[in-house]
Write a structure and sequence with these properties.
Strand content: 5-15%
CATH superfamily of the largest domain: Vaccinia Virus protein VP39
CATH architecture of the largest domain: 3-Layer(aba) Sandwich
Number of strands: 6
Number of domains: 2
CATH class of the largest domain: Alpha Beta
Distance between the termini: 29 Å
Largest sheet: 4 strands, parallel
Order of helices and strands: HHHEEHEHEHEEH
Length: about 200
């Protein structure tokens, strides 16, 4: 059902025409303008107020984490397929989750479900370190390559099952769980610090 809804939603997106970004276009200045409009008209308007989070949303190039054929839709507030029946979360969801996490400059964040790597990229300038785990090998490797190419030096990606967390980097001071857990209480939550959110 989730996959069908995502595909339905994206089929509607495919008919949206974005000014300045068409097939074969989309310079960095175009993307920056679309990103600014997204943050102002969607994210701030929806009530996200943390200035550090808003600054990171303005600076993080979401289009770099989206397969090439879909990049023209990068700054629409919607989930977009990234392959393997997965999607990149809508920007408002990412901004809201990040604000609720209340990231601090000294935090070590454990993320279960790297997906495209976009959430980790948003967190990167807000914390000391991000450790992110992705169970789908192709997505994990792609996320790692994208993050490395874009220069996110404080993000470490691991391909594997995040159910047991990442003991080598425990404890974390914050935890993010964009992936759906098999149970509400998994072992990584026990190995994380009590301050985890």
């Amino acid at each position: 059902m989730t996959t069908r809804l995502a595909c339905l939603g994206f089929s509607l997106l495919a008919s949206v025409s974005l000014p300045g970004v068409g097939q074969g276009q989309g310079g960095q200045s175009d993307y920056a303008a679309l990103r600014e409009r997204l943050v102002t008209q969607e994210i701030e308007a929806a009530g996200v107020k943390n200035p550090r989070v808003l600054a990171s949303m303005r600076a993080t190039p979401r289009h770099e984490f989206i397969p090439g054929g879909f990049r023209q839709h990068a700054y629409v507030d919607a989930a977009i397929p990234i392959g393997h029946e997965q999607t990149i979360s809508p920007p408002l969801v990412v901004a809201y989750m990040t604000e609720q996490l209340d990231p601090q400059p000294t935090d070590r964040v454990l993320e279960i479900g790297a997906g495209s790597g976009y959430q980790a990229a948003v967190l990167s300038p807000l914390v000391a370190q991000v450790f992110t785990i992705e169970i789908v090998p192709e997505l994990g490797r792609r996320a790692e390559q994208t993050l490395e190419r874009l220069g996110y030096k404080n993000v470490t990606v691991r391909v594997g099952d995040g159910y047991r967390g990442w003991p080598e980097h425990a404890p974390s001071t914050r935890s993010s769980l964009p992936a759906r857990p098999r149970t509400c209480r998994s072992r990584w939550s026990i190995s994380s610090a009590k301050a985890d959110r």
